[in-house]
Amino acid sequence: MALPPIAQDPAYHDFADHRGLIGIPNFLNVVTNLAFLAVGIAGIVLCMRWREGTVARLAWTTCFIGVALVALGSAYYHYAPDNGSLVWDRLPMSCGFMALTVAMLSEHVNPRLEKHLLAPALALGIASVIYWHYTDDLRLYVLVQFLPLLLLPVIQFLYKCPYSDRGLLLLALAIYALSKLAEHFDTAVFATTGNIVSGHSLKHLLAAAALLVVYWMLRRRANLTG
Predict the structure, then answer these.
(1) pTM (2 decimals)?
(2) What distance in Å separates the CA atoms of residue 173 and residue 57, rounded to the nearest whole number?
(3) What is the pLDDT of residues 178-210, one digit of tens each?
(4) How far is it, in rounded angstroms, from Cα 9 to Cα 2?
């Protein structure tokens, strides 16, 4: 926050693929969000099957609810991209990142952290989007989105976890990093694929794949403490 304010670039809304289909503008950028909906619903169902008292159950459930809502918010944004609709994309995304961070802290550091941190973390995520919307300053939102991605490997390195397969989270982070690269090179990816798929559409699919790896980790892992 000591850096100068970061304004939203108006060119951000000018995506490479503007093609419409069956009356839906920016068709691929809209419909690729269905991948988030599928992973979000699968994750919610998985978490609801866990017994009461499972560590970070509420945080993981909240994370996947955020993922499912990203599908709706992002589809709405890409249907008519501007700063106003972008709010509804970023709100569930920020909540998902915060819930993921709390889940990891609860599992690795102290199970009681979920009770004390989940609500304030979600409030911080929502506040970061509201702050950007009314001030055109992305600093807090950038912190909310990217700091967890830097902290998660550190948490895994410094603390033990009672569950197996946690290395899959690092794979998920690597795939998510690829999604951000695809987003950055939106136009180049579109040109390279012969105008078949844009970098931003690919970003949606890669980000959903990263979340699918997280779902897979939660589904297959075993409690090492017995």
Answers:
(1) 0.94
(2) 21
(3) 999 999 999 999 999 999 999 999 999 999 999
(4) 20
Could you give the 3-state DSSP secondary structure of residue 10?
A: helix
Domains of the chain: 26-220 (1.20.1070.10)
CA torsion sign for 60, 98, 171, 31 is: positive
CA 131: distance to chain centroid? 19
End-to-end CA distance of the chain: 44
Q: What is the pLDDT of residues 53-82, one digit of tens each?
A: 888 999 999 999 999 999 999 999 999 999
Q: Are 28 and 198 in contact (CB under 8 A)?
A: yes
Which of these, 202, 196, 211, lies nearest to 68 by C-alpha position? 211
Rounded distance, CA 182 to CA 179, Å? 5
In total, the chain counts a number of residues equal to: 226
- What gap in Å lies between CA 134 and CA 222, rounded to an integer? 45
CA dist 70 → 58, 65, 103, 144 (Å): 18, 9, 19, 16
